[in-house]
Amino acid sequence: MVDETVRIFDENRTPIGAASRDEVHRIGHWHEVFQCWFVRREEGEIKVYLQLRSSLKKDFPGLFDITAAGHLMEDELVNDGVREIEEELGIPVSYDELHPLLVMNASIKQDDFIDNEIANIFLFEYDQSFDAFNLQKEEVAGIVEADFDAFYDLWMGNQTDLHVDGFWFNHNGKRKNLTKKISKRHFVPHESTYYETIVKEMKNYFSQTHGK
Fold this sequence. Notes:
Blueprint (H helix, E strand, L loop, with lengths): L4 E5 L5 E6 H8 L1 E13 L2 E9 L10 E2 L2 E4 L11 H7 L9 E12 L2 E13 L14 E8 H8 L6 E8 L5 E8 L9 H17 L4
Parallel strand pairs: 3-8
Antiparallel strand pairs: 1-2, 3-4, 3-6, 4-5, 4-9, 7-8, 9-10, 10-11
């Protein structure tokens, strides 16, 4: 597999060149990513969707993560990142259907892996069933939903676990129902401030668009 090339930036988000993804994570260059959280309103309740990363992934296999996300390549703009949604989830979405949530710096540092991201973060109000998902199985092993208020309370420290429902594909490629309780250790280890900022921004969005 040819290593992809991404734009790199300084701490002030000024472009300074390009580098391979391997170098980016080895050196810790700042680089742009696209992130999209799926949410759904149903009978007065709000759900948030999480992807279960494939066990084949090099980074953070088998952990829960943002619904769809990926690196922006050297020749891509932010709106090009929408391709990640259809690639990973099989759901065609246009950039105009997304709600821009915020842009923030986010870092994960583990041993020789340094992921310094300029994260372009969006919400998408999903209105279909689980059956509409057609997962890129080498990337995504499953999709679950959780009550947003419970998700908020988990990351704000008000509770220690989260109930999720959805499906996953086992090692034999069989689709199975997935219902379980998870905790923070089951998530990709973004900084706690990342998750706290996200849930606060989501809550603000829902309060501003109540009933819309």
